[in-house]
């Protein structure tokens, strides 16, 4: 796992808010749901809606277009949706929020 600093402490969204950022060449949504920080892909796989216009409900991220829901823990869509979103590990450190990315075997070999 490779960790990248995403935000300073004062940039982390307040409870109930979603913020779009770019980290390691990927556009992500940083979500503060009930004081738990999550990082997800920024677009809904169903219709391409941008999650920054969505909201959280019962531990799920809700797409603003068709109201598809995705678990902030697992990334799985609600029953019957048959899709998922990418969830990235987050770590709050003394100097801010870090996001973890899996390293590909290629980059491990050739750095």
Mean pLDDT: 93
Reading the helices and strands in chain order gives EEEEEEEEEEH
Largest sheet at a glance? 4 strands, antiparallel
Q: If you compute it from the alpha carbons, what radius of gyration comes out, rounded to the nearest whole angstrom?
A: 14 Å
Strand arrangement, major sheet = 2-3-4-8
What share of the residues lie within helices?
Answer: under 10%
**Strand elements, count:** 10
Terminal CA distance reads 13 Å
Describe the structure in brief.
This protein is mainly β and 111 residues long.
Written description of the protein model:
By secondary structure, the chain is mainly beta. The protein has 1 helix and 10 strands, in the order ββββββββββα. 24% of the residues are buried. The mean pLDDT is 93.
List the helices and strands and how they pair.
Layout: E1 2-7, E2 18-23, E3 26-33, E4 36-41, E5 55-57, E6 60-62, E7 69-71, E8 87-88, E9 90-93, E10 96-101, H1 105-110
Antiparallel strand pairs: 1-10, 2-3, 3-4, 4-8, 5-6, 6-7, 9-10
From the structure above, extract its key features.
111 residues, mainly beta, three-stranded antiparallel beta sheet, 1 helix, 10 strands, globular
């Amino acid at each position: 796992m490779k960790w990248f600093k995403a935000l300073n402490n004062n940039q982390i969204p307040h409870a109930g808010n979603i913020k779009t950022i770019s980290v390691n060449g990927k556009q992500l949504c940083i979500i503060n749901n009930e004081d738990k920080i999550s990082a997800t892909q920024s677009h809904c796989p169903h219709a391409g809606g941008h999650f920054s216009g969505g909201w959280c409900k019962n531990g799920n991220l809700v797409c603003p277009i068709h109201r598809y829901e995705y678990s902030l823990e697992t990334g799985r869509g609600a029953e019957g949706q048959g899709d998922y979103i990418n969830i990235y590990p987050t770590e709050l450190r003394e100097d801010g929020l870090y996001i973890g990315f899996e390293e590909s075997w290629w980059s491990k070999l050739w750095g």
